[in-house]
Amino acid sequence: DAGITQSPRHKVTETGTPVTLRCHQTENHRYMYWYRQDPGHGLRLIHYSYGVKDTDKGEVSDGYSVSRSKTEDFLLTLESATSSQTSVYFCAISESDGRDTEAFFGQGTRLTVV
Amino acid sequence: DQQVKQNSPSLSVQEGRISILNCDYTNSMFDYFLWYKKYPAEGPTFLISISSIKDKNEDGRFTVFLNKSAKHLSLHIVPSQPGDSAVYFCASFSGSARQLTFGSGTQLTVLP
Question: Starting at the edge strand that comes first in sequence, how are the strands of the sheet with B56-59 ordered?
Fold first, then answer.
C-alpha cells in the first residue's frame, strides 16, 4: 500500500467553525489531490498541488483552501464549515500528473457538519 | 455538467458470468482513461487504464474497451467473482487540465 495517511478519519463539527484535514504521504510523490465523494456525484476534485507551494483549483473549490509547505503534507481547510460540506473527503497522490500513472488514495475522512 | 457519466448506478451478476460496466464521456480532450474499484470504508484503488490511442487493454480477468468515436468506455470482468463486489468508478484524464475527472460510480454485486 502507498504510504498515505489522512487525519482525522472522522469528524463532527458545527456550522461556521473552521476545519482542517491533513494528508500525509511518505512516497515523495509530486502531485497531491483532495476529492470529495457524494452520492450521485462520484469523486469531485476540490484542489490539487503539483509541488511545494504550487496549488490549483478543482471543480468544487468554493469554500475550501489548501496549503502545501512540505512535499509530504497537503492540508485542506474549510474556513467556515457549512452543512453542504458534509461529505467523505479523499486525499490522493501520484508521481506525475495522472497520465500513464495511477493515483493512490487515502482511506478517507468522513466529515459531518451539524 | 458531468463530463464523465456512468448511467447505471448498480449492476448484479451471477458468479462466473461476465460483468460489463459502462462509461460515457463528453470531452474529446480526454486522452487517458482509468477504472478504480472502491470497497466500503476504503479509498479507491486503481484497477486498469487505457490510452486514447488504443482500443483495448487487458489485465487478467479485466479488459477495458475504448470506442473513441462513440466516446464510450467499458470494463469487462470475466469471470466475475464475489470479491469483485464493489463500486467501480471510471475516470478520464485531460493533459491540458491536469485533472482526473470521475464518473458517479456503479455498484457491482456478484451473487454466489
Answer: B4-5, B19-25, B72-77, B62-67, B56-59
Peptide bond into A39 cis (omega under 30): no
Query: For cell 458534509, what's the residue?
Result: A86
Q: Helix, strand or coil for residue B110?
A: strand
Q: Measured between beta carbons, which residues in chain A are less than 8 angstroms from residue B31?
A: 99
- CA dist B31 and B14 (Å) reads 33
- Cα distances (angstroms) measured from residue B76 to each of A12, A46, B7: 39, 30, 16
Q: Hey, how many other C-beta atoms are within 10 angstroms of the C-beta on A104?
A: 21
Q: Residue B68's domain is classified under what CATH number?
A: 2.60.40.10
Task: Classify A50 in phi/psi space as left (phi over 0), alpha (psi -120 to 50) or beta.
Answer: alpha
Provide the grid cell at A82.
457549512
What are the pLDDT digits (tens) for A22-80? 999 999 999 999 999 998 888 999 999 999 999 999 989 999 999 999 999 999 999 99
3-state helix, strand, coil in chain B (%, to 5): 5, 60, 40
Q: Nearest-CA residue of chain B relative to A101?
A: B49
User: Considering its fold, how many domains does chain B have in total?
Assistant: 1
Q: Locate the chain A residue with the closest alpha carbon to B47.
A: A102
Domains of chain A: 4-113 (2.60.40.10)
Q: Does B103 touch chain A (CB under 8 A)?
A: yes
pLDDT digits (tens, 9 = 90+) for B47-95: 999 999 999 999 999 999 999 999 999 999 999 999 999 999 999 887 6
